[in-house]
Amino acid sequence: xxxxxxxxxxxxxxxxxxxxxxxxxxxxxxxxxxxxxxxxxxxxxxxxxxxxxxxxxxxxxxxxxxxxxxxxxxxxxxxxxxxxxxxxxxxxxxxxxxxxxxxxxxxxxxxxxxx
Length: 115
Fold this sequence. Notes:
Elements: H1 3-31, H2 44-47, H3 53-73, H4 76-98, H5 101-108
Protein backbone atom coordinates (compact mmCIF):
# COMPACT_ATOMS: atom_id res chain seq x y z
CA UNK A 1 0.00 0.00 0.00
CA UNK A 2 1.38 3.39 -0.91
CA UNK A 3 0.89 6.71 0.83
CA UNK A 4 -1.91 7.76 -1.53
CA UNK A 5 -3.91 4.62 -0.68
CA UNK A 6 -3.46 5.27 3.03
CA UNK A 7 -4.63 8.89 2.63
CA UNK A 8 -7.63 7.70 0.59
CA UNK A 9 -8.55 5.38 3.47
CA UNK A 10 -8.29 8.25 5.97
CA UNK A 11 -10.50 10.45 3.78
CA UNK A 12 -13.04 7.64 3.36
CA UNK A 13 -13.27 7.27 7.15
CA UNK A 14 -13.67 11.03 7.49
CA UNK A 15 -16.51 10.98 4.93
CA UNK A 16 -18.22 8.16 6.83
CA UNK A 17 -18.08 10.21 10.01
CA UNK A 18 -19.35 13.38 8.30
CA UNK A 19 -22.18 11.54 6.52
CA UNK A 20 -23.26 9.97 9.81
CA UNK A 21 -23.19 13.34 11.54
CA UNK A 22 -25.42 14.69 8.76
CA UNK A 23 -27.82 11.78 9.35
CA UNK A 24 -27.95 12.59 13.07
CA UNK A 25 -28.55 16.27 12.34
CA UNK A 26 -31.32 15.50 9.85
CA UNK A 27 -32.94 13.04 12.26
CA UNK A 28 -32.90 15.57 15.07
CA UNK A 29 -34.28 18.34 12.83
CA UNK A 30 -37.07 16.14 11.45
CA UNK A 31 -38.17 15.28 15.00
CA UNK A 32 -37.69 18.77 16.40
CA UNK A 33 -35.20 17.39 18.90
CA UNK A 34 -31.72 18.39 19.98
CA UNK A 35 -28.81 16.03 20.36
CA UNK A 36 -27.62 15.76 24.00
CA UNK A 37 -24.56 17.79 24.87
CA UNK A 38 -21.72 16.10 26.72
CA UNK A 39 -21.67 19.02 29.16
CA UNK A 40 -25.31 18.47 30.20
CA UNK A 41 -26.13 16.33 33.23
CA UNK A 42 -27.17 12.79 32.34
CA UNK A 43 -30.86 11.96 32.42
CA UNK A 44 -32.88 9.29 30.67
CA UNK A 45 -35.13 12.01 29.26
CA UNK A 46 -32.19 13.91 27.73
CA UNK A 47 -30.88 10.67 26.20
CA UNK A 48 -34.13 9.75 24.40
CA UNK A 49 -33.15 11.46 21.11
CA UNK A 50 -29.91 9.47 21.02
CA UNK A 51 -31.82 6.19 21.44
CA UNK A 52 -33.82 6.38 18.17
CA UNK A 53 -32.81 3.45 15.93
CA UNK A 54 -31.56 5.66 13.07
CA UNK A 55 -29.53 7.82 15.45
CA UNK A 56 -28.07 4.76 17.17
CA UNK A 57 -27.09 3.32 13.77
CA UNK A 58 -25.41 6.55 12.69
CA UNK A 59 -23.64 6.75 16.06
CA UNK A 60 -22.36 3.20 15.69
CA UNK A 61 -20.87 4.06 12.31
CA UNK A 62 -19.19 7.15 13.79
CA UNK A 63 -17.74 5.09 16.64
CA UNK A 64 -16.40 2.38 14.33
CA UNK A 65 -14.98 4.85 11.81
CA UNK A 66 -13.41 6.97 14.56
CA UNK A 67 -11.80 3.89 16.11
CA UNK A 68 -10.39 2.88 12.72
CA UNK A 69 -9.21 6.44 12.08
CA UNK A 70 -7.42 6.51 15.44
CA UNK A 71 -5.83 3.12 14.78
CA UNK A 72 -4.70 4.32 11.35
CA UNK A 73 -3.00 7.50 12.51
CA UNK A 74 -1.76 6.58 15.99
CA UNK A 75 1.77 5.27 16.36
CA UNK A 76 1.45 1.53 17.14
CA UNK A 77 3.53 1.80 20.32
CA UNK A 78 1.12 4.44 21.61
CA UNK A 79 -1.80 2.08 20.97
CA UNK A 80 -0.05 -0.59 23.01
CA UNK A 81 0.56 1.85 25.88
CA UNK A 82 -3.04 3.10 25.85
CA UNK A 83 -4.31 -0.47 25.97
CA UNK A 84 -1.90 -1.32 28.77
CA UNK A 85 -3.04 1.54 31.02
CA UNK A 86 -6.77 0.93 30.55
CA UNK A 87 -6.62 -1.37 33.57
CA UNK A 88 -5.34 1.53 35.65
CA UNK A 89 -8.33 3.67 34.71
CA UNK A 90 -10.87 1.05 35.77
CA UNK A 91 -8.93 0.40 38.98
CA UNK A 92 -8.93 4.11 39.76
CA UNK A 93 -12.66 4.32 39.14
CA UNK A 94 -13.23 1.38 41.45
CA UNK A 95 -11.21 3.08 44.17
CA UNK A 96 -13.18 6.32 43.75
CA UNK A 97 -16.46 4.42 43.98
CA UNK A 98 -15.38 2.45 47.05
CA UNK A 99 -14.27 5.68 48.75
CA UNK A 100 -17.69 7.21 47.98
CA UNK A 101 -16.08 10.10 46.11
CA UNK A 102 -19.21 10.84 44.01
CA UNK A 103 -21.33 11.25 47.15
CA UNK A 104 -18.69 13.43 48.80
CA UNK A 105 -18.50 15.67 45.74
CA UNK A 106 -22.29 15.82 45.46
CA UNK A 107 -22.54 16.96 49.10
CA UNK A 108 -19.80 19.54 48.63
CA UNK A 109 -21.57 20.97 45.58
CA UNK A 110 -20.05 24.16 44.25
CA UNK A 111 -18.09 24.77 47.45
CA UNK A 112 -15.15 22.79 46.03
CA UNK A 113 -12.72 24.94 44.07
CA UNK A 114 -9.96 23.50 41.95
CA UNK A 115 -6.74 25.48 41.76
